[in-house]
Design a protein that fits this description.
By secondary structure, this protein is of the alpha+beta class. It is built from five helices and six strands; from the N terminus they run H-H-E-E-E-E-E-H-H-H-E. The structure holds heme C.
């Protein structure tokens, strides 16, 4: 092969690789965008993003700490425990990130890609398994109310994968959400 033909083969190879790489980048970008869309329309921000309030008292996701879960160190306001027994009230705090009900007290998780306090060390497989099995990271303790995993877990692998891709693309927020305080099951259960 002449030098000239070799060079043009090399040139074509470079052109094709660059095209293939940008097609992949585009596919990734499209996936992240789909994940962002799916999270907006399926209400994840309602419980996973702390809130700021409009003058009318309407809560909106706080753009500075999107999806970072219940703010660490934020104590719950006082409440009367007799209100949250079965048949009475389920309470939620002003950020919609802490929930009190017959099961105990739960706090929404930090979904940002922070390695110590969020999903930074999770894989897509762990994420999908958690939402399908209702177990923490797919293996651990049961994921408690009001996390609607039985519904969310019915999304397709592609949709859950897109949500995971989006979560890995957002700014990491270091926020260690408290462990839940679960009530003991009633006798005989
Ligand atoms: C009604 C409130 C609510 C909504 C809506 C909600 N979550 Fe949650 N989520 C929670 C709470 C509370 C927890 C923590 C439960 C616990 O500690 O057992 C949680 C936990 C999680 C976890 C951690 C699971 C684990 O393995 O520990 C993931 C992942 C998650 N949610 C993803 C999502 C996604 C994605 C959406 C939207 C498609 C969503 N959540 C919508 C309340 C909610």
């Amino acid at each position: 092969m002449s030098i000239c033909r070799r060079l043009s083969a090399l040139f074509l190879l470079v052109v094709f690789s660059v095209a293939a790489m940008s097609a992949l980048a585009l596919a990734d970008d499209a996936m992240v965008k789909r994940g962002e869309y799916l999270m907006k329309v399926s209400g994840c921000h309602d419980c996973h993003s702390p809130k700021v309030y409009t003058p009318q008292g309407v809560p909106m996701p706080d753009p500075k700490r999107l999806l970072s879960g219940h703010p660490a160190g934020l104590a719950l306001p006082e409440y009367d425990k007799s209100w949250t027994t079965p048949g009475k009230w389920v309470l939620l705090n002003e950020h919609f990130t802490a929930f009190v009900g017959p099961w105990g007290v739960t706090y929404s998780a930090n979904l940002t890609p922070d390695k110590d306090t969020g999903t930074g060390l999770w894989t897509e497989a762990i994420f999908i398994k958690a939402l399908r099995s209702g177990k923490h990271m797919g293996e651990g303790r049961p994921i408690m109310p009001p996390m609607p995993w039985p519904m969310i877990g019915q999304m397709t692998d592609e949709d859950l994968g897109a949500i995971f891709a989006y979560l890995q693309s957002i700014p990491a927020v270091s926020n260690k959400v408290p462990e839940p305080q679960l009530n003991p099951p009633p006798p005989g259960h």
